[in-house]
Amino acid sequence: MDQIVAYLRMVLDEQIIIEPYNVKDKLSLYFAGIYQFYKVKVLGAEFLLVKPSEESTVAQIKKQIIALEDKLDYKVVLLVQDLTPYRRKKMIKEMVPFISVDQQMFLPFIGVHLQSKREKMNKEYVIERFTPAMQLIFLAILYDEKSYVSQDELSERLSVSTMTVSRALDVFVNLRLLEFSVEGKTGRKKIYHCRDKKLYFESGKSYLINPVSKRFFVCQVPKGIKTYKSDLTALGEITMLGEPDHLIVAISAEDERSMKPYGVSGEMGREEHLTEIHVMKYNVGLLTKNEYVDAISLIYGLGERDDRIEIAIDEMMEEYAWYEG
């Protein structure tokens, strides 16, 4: 136990307290006989660490932990002696909290207590709207087929600094959009979990911004500029709405300067049905796998909305189970 205490003090809280917990008159002889119980106080949270005296399957352990939590009214964490890669993966999949002697841990509930303890610190993360970088990260998580992600993965995939990703993830946790667990041998690697994509989107959509920073017409699009069909052009091609009388495409802010020499007046652009350029606040190319701007960026960047457009939006979003108009 001394080894576990030293490990938790190093990675979580130097003031951690672990002491034996008496379950007499609280549990049946069976439960009292197969586990040793310790009460853990860390970061303002309390949970029970249980050390098994016999081998059980992960399914059995999960049922026993649920029963113990119900009877004792504490979160219960399993103390593991020998943790094989297979068993570790299985326990994480089944959401069984554990701390192992070889310095690995999985505490999916601890983020709530971290947030509670650091509530004053997190006031800086109270926001009215997402920044462009936050929105990019929010949408990347939304579209991801996986329900979990790491800071390093997002930073690499989106070419965003680790500091920016870290702050965005802290905001999402603070807004209860994400949860996180602590994993790895050092106990310092955070894995962020999006348990319910529908709830994630519904809770986060009020913070979304219009991703279009500028609109202008050009007489032509120079070679080498990556564009994505956007606004009514994209919506008209994807659905039965029908295309507008001119092409609308999105570009990144980095390409705006290259477009400027080809700019024309709005009056000329509309009369001659020239290409309309939308300069985006973040790189929408990182969110799409085809020639169109991603669906949410398209919706929130629309220049106009009417009943026909609303119907087309609903048609476009039918493939997304997490979306409700």
Q: Could you give a quick summary of the protein structure above?
A:
With 325 residues, the chain is α+β, with helices and mostly antiparallel strands. Helix content is 38%, strand content 21%.
Can you offer a commentary on this structure?
- The chain has 325 residues and is of the alpha+beta class.
- It has 3 domains: 2-107; 118-207, Orthogonal Bundle (Arc Repressor Mutant, subunit A), CATH 1.10.10; 212-319, no CATH class.
- It is built from 14 helices and 14 strands.
- The chain has a 6-stranded mixed beta sheet. Strands 11-12-14-10-13 form a 5-stranded mixed beta sheet.
- β5 and β6 form a beta hairpin.
- α7 (151-158) crosses α8.
- The chain is elongated, with a radius of gyration of 26 Å.
- The protein starts with a helix and ends in a 9-residue tail after the last helix.
Give short descriptive properties of this protein.
single chain; 325 residues; alpha+beta; Arc Repressor Mutant, subunit A; six-stranded mixed sheet; 21% strand
User: Into which percent range does the helicity of residues fall?
Assistant: 25-40%
The number of distinct helices, counting runs of at least 4 residues, comes to 14
* End-to-end CA span: 53 Å
The helix/strand series, from N terminus to C terminus, equals HEHEEHEHEEHHEHHEEHEEHEHEHEHH
Number of strands: 14
How does the overall form come out from the CA principal axes? elongated
Give the uncertain stretches in residue-range form. Answer: 112-122
Order of neighbouring strands in the sheet with most strands: 1-2-3-4-5-6
- Overall tally of structural domains: 3
Secondary structural class: alpha+beta
Content of β-strand: 15-25%
Indicate the mean pLDDT. 88
Biggest sheet: strands, sense, closure? Answer: 6 strands, mixed
